[in-house]
Amino acid sequence: AEWPAFYLEYKFDKYINHNNLFRFVEYLQEKYKGGTDLDLYFPEVSAYGDLKAHSIGSQGICGNDIHTIEKVLSDSTREQKIYYIVCCHETEKDMNHDYEVTMFWNRMLKKKNLLSYGKKMKNSVVLTEYYILEINNNNKIHLSIFHQGKNSNGKERNPKIMIDKNFISTFLVYHKKFS
């Protein structure tokens, strides 16, 4: 979900700026050690949130680092809630389209291997619906843990939370399908 997520963040930030919505939502970039690695802050309710791009076919919604979630939910100086805005999409892999995007991209990057990243590259992404989910101290027991594996340096990555698709209703605040 790399580029759907990056594109979603880009468009959301532009939307906030264009419509002067800073009173309601701020797009954050606290991706430094000790920062709160969540994309959004809602000043009127003093709560953090995050944008998520979610592929319809996956088993669950992969969330943030478990330590970030625990830190926010235990902070008594603000609302102990986290809001996820989850944009669901249908994705077609580029490998099912003769690697047209992959080869174009790798030619632009002047890579020798024109099929590099081909198994992960997307050919199209269509937004189908979105959810607003709330994670709080009462429903966090329904979160599962997603172990990411290792970084390129061989060090274990911190586990993330996962919202299983069978438990979405437990966290649901709002749902809208695009027509």
How many helices does DSSP assign?
A: 4
Order of helices and strands: HEEEEHEHEEEHE
Number of strands: 9
Q: How large is the radius of gyration?
A: 18 Å
How much of the sequence is in beta strands?
25-35%
Q: What structural category arises from helix and sheet content?
A: alpha+beta
Q: In which order are the strands of the major sheet placed?
A: 1-2-3-5-6-9
Instruction: Estimate the global geometry from the Cα principal axes.
Output: globular
Low-pLDDT residue spans: none
Q: Helical amount among residues, as a percent range?
A: 10-25%
Cα end-to-end separation: 22 Å
Summed over residues and divided by their number, the pLDDT gives a mean of 89
Largest sheet, described in full? 6 strands, mixed
Structure overview:
The protein has a 6-stranded mixed sheet. The protein is α+β, with helices and mostly antiparallel strands. It has helices at 2-18, 66-73, 100-108, 168-171, and strands at residues 26-27, 40-42, 47-55, 60-65, 81-93, 122-136, 144-146, 160-164, 172-177. The model has no long low-confidence stretch (mean pLDDT 89). The longest helix has 17 residues, at 2-18. It is globular and about 55 Å long.
Summarize it:
The protein is an alpha+beta fold and 179 residues long. The protein has helices at residues 2-18, 66-73, 100-108, 168-171, and strands spanning 26-27, 40-42, 47-55, 60-65, 81-93, 122-136, 144-146, 160-164, 172-177.
